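Chapter summary example.
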Amino acid sequence: MTEKIRVFSGIRPTNILNIGNYLGAIKGWLEFQERPDLDCLYSAVDLHGITSPYESKKYQNQIQELVLEYLAVGIDPNKSHIFIQSQVPEHIELAYYLSTIYPVSRLEQLPTYKDKKQEQPRYINMGLLYYPVLMAADILIYKAKLVPVGKDQLPHIEVAREMARSFNKSFGQTFPEPQAHLMKGAYIPSLTGEGKMSKSKPDSFISLLDDLKTIEKKLAKVPTDNGHDKVLPKEGGVLSLLNFVELFQGLEKKQEYEKLYLTTGLQYGDLKKDLAKSIYQELQPIQEKRNYYADRPKEVAEILEDGRKYASNIARETLKEVKEKMGLTSNG
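The structure predicted for these 332 residues follows.
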């Protein structure tokens, strides 16, 4: 029997999931869990969440909400393993071992670290610099070969690959070099027309729990132009809207709008209203399933415990091998 290829991915429990998370990562998770050749582990990466400002008294609720949303979007505990990162302490231990073979200067050069320093100038902590090391440990502790991520996480996957190569060179073949898997919607534009949709920018996203009226209000605020030009926009709110049309209504609909833009003119009011309906149609069953699991906390707790046990068994074996190869324990 061929050994399954392991998949790992996770999301920070910092806010309610948005359609950027859904399209950029989770749809890839759903595709992977249907493949019989893959073994999927999906985590609520709560240790990463505390590297940004957060409210400790609300954090457990946020973690539980993220788990509910994992289940709501279709992560099936019969096909995937769902667990909370901090409940598998081997992640932290492996991160320390990896940190001893990786240069600080390389971490300081990462664009993600530089961006976070600007985004939260009063909360620049060691954990923020250490973030890619822990993320590498998250992946390598399971010897995962595939990591479905958004485009912004590619530098971190490269760090994990570098760490795997460095460890293998120093201590013998241990880790596979993980490959990033980008979804079609791996980069979801912001509603503001600037940058990507982000949980840390409230005006930029549509939540998975937004109702139709809320979605309509958010789309109404997307900046637009007069709806007509000789060339299609290459940036800004109009481009964002057209990208959303393709993602939720299809390429043919997007091309129809583009033709209007280049000829008789595009009416944004109609576009936004139809787009809001299409987005809500996809989110409504997710919201109903989330409510189903919210009413069954015991079932959710059992799913998490099963996931923790499965992840812990793999992590312990990997850590045992790592410590032996690094000379930290006897292999006798």
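To summarize the output: The longest helix spans residues 297-325.
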